[in-house]
Design goal:
9% of the residues lie in helices and 34% in strands. With 208 residues, it is mainly beta. The strands form 3 sheets. Strands 1-5-11-7-8 form a 5-stranded antiparallel beta sheet, with no helix packed on it. Strands 4-12-6-10-9 form a 5-stranded antiparallel beta sheet, with no helix packed on it.
């Protein structure tokens, strides 16, 4: 009888965990992209690796090109129909960019996200691989440091997420205003992503 119970115990364990639900076990962490840190990062994002904007926002947003998040902060023009240089993320949408090489955690902030038009909050995630896993650095941070009437920014420290290096940066809408919202630029408006450890000339400072 004892032998029979021992043989049945794995089955009883499986039933106790629920049908089709194996016993919990740690998930392996994906390896970073080979040579992710072999090159130095650029001052600004060099490529878009992934993006998603909900259909209900895309249906009316006119600033819907994720490629405008590449390169220096260049938002300009006038609203609501004649802005340039940014992508509206819509309700909970995101854009993931490649910084061209690894950013290392240093003293103070390591990343700057430029957000156009207003001061909508954004959430920032980072990874060493374009496929992830992505680590949350800071959620729904308001981009309230103004440079001019159109352009503002907010800074992020890799250490806030317990991260020492990052190459891929995902910027996600943190306004979370359900669409359709009645505007042509729903959600946070992403202008650019900057690596603060890389020197760059000609970038204006904040309005004092």
């Amino acid at each position: 009888m004892r032998r029979l119970l021992l043989r049945l115990s794995p089955l009883l364990l499986a039933v106790s965990c629920g049908q089709g639900e194996p016993s919990p076990s740690p998930s392996p962490t994906p390896s970073p992209t080979p040579n992710a840190c072999a090159t130095a990062p650029s001052a600004f994002a060099t490529a878009v690796t992934d993006w998603w904007i909900p259909a209900c926002s895309l249906a009316q947003n006119i600033y819907d090109d994720p490629q405008t998040a590449i390169g220096p902060a260049d938002a300009g023009g006038s609203g609501p129909l004649n802005y340039t240089g940014f992508v509206s993320l819509g309700f909970g949408g995101h854009v993931t960019v490649d910084m061209g090489g690894c950013i290392n955690d240093g003293p103070g902030p390591d990343l700057r996200v430029y957000q156009a038009v207003s001061s909508e909050p954004v959430s920032v995630y980072v990874s060493l691989s374009p496929q992830g896993p992505f680590t949350l650095i800071e959620p729904r941070k308001e981009c309230g440091q103004r440079i001019n009437g159109i352009k503002g920014y907010c800074d992020f420290d890799l250490a806030s997420g317990g991260v020492t290096q990052a190459r891929y940066v995902r910027v996600e809408d943190g306004e979370l205003f359900p669409c359709p919202g009645g505007t042509v630029s729903e959600g946070a408006d992403l202008d650019a992503v900057q690596a603060l450890s890389v020197s760059t000339a000609g970038e204006p400072g904040p309005v004092r």
